[in-house]
Amino acid sequence: MERTRSEKHIIRITNLIFLLGTSLFIYGIFRLPLEKADKTGWKICISAALFVYLCLYIRFSKRQEKIDKPKRYKHISSLALMGDDRQILKEWNIYGKTGLLIGKSKGEYQADIDLSFTEDAPFISAQHALLNYCNGHWYVEDAGSKNGLEVQKANQAIAFRLTEKKPLRLERGDIIRINETALLLR
Q1: Rg, C-alpha atoms of the chain
Q2: Where do the domains of the chain lie?
Q3: Structure confidence by residue, pLDDT tens digits, 21-68
Q4: What distance separates the 2 farthest-apart alpha carbons in the chain?
């Protein structure tokens, strides 16, 4: 799991505090026998112990926080066919795949995402679109279909019409539209 920049910064600071506290603690212990009458050694020793305790508390509370938080993955792991009411009708697991054909299984063509059972099947080509995974991202491109396809980005209300052989990078929450058929990337 990759840490964010702020998490790395917090870890560095807590490591420095821990190192400083431990050094002061050791210094205080070795200074005590030399200056029995001086209470400075005890003060250094106690403050160093508090530093060490604070550092350990911060470090382990952050770790526990990470364990307790549910993980939110940014990567796309499935493709879901949505109905008119945005209800999921069917879902395909695409995690670990590198290339998928969206279309209709017909004769020699076997589509990975088979939409031959949908209401819009007459408007969907056997090889309608291609989903490709490259450098950590999914891309979609029109595979020379008759009716084309559109992509509605997750953060926008309008859909972009794709041209043939021009891939578009996809993000989690984007919707691929083939006529009225909607495929949500999850």
Answers
A1: 29
A2: 5-68, 78-185
A3: 677 666 666 665 555 545 666 666 666 667 666 766 666 665 544 444
A4: 96
Please give the Cα distance from 12 to 18 (Å, whole number). 10
Residue type, 73: Y
CATH number for the segment(s) 78-185: 2.60.200.20
φ, ψ dihedrals at 82, nearest 5°: -105, 145
Strand partners, 12: none
Residue 20: phi and psi, rounded to 5, are: -65, -45
DSSP state for residue 128 in the 8-state scheme: E
Q: What is the dihedral of CA 119, 122, 128, 133, to 10 degrees?
A: 10
63 Cβ contact list (under 8 Å, min separation 6): none
| Separation of alpha carbons 105 and 107, rounded Å | 7
Q: At what angle do helices 40-68 and 5-34 cross, to 10 degrees?
A: 160
User: What's the CA gap between 28 and 67, in Å, rounded?
Assistant: 36
* Residue pLDDT, tens place only, 115-132: 999 999 999 999 999 999
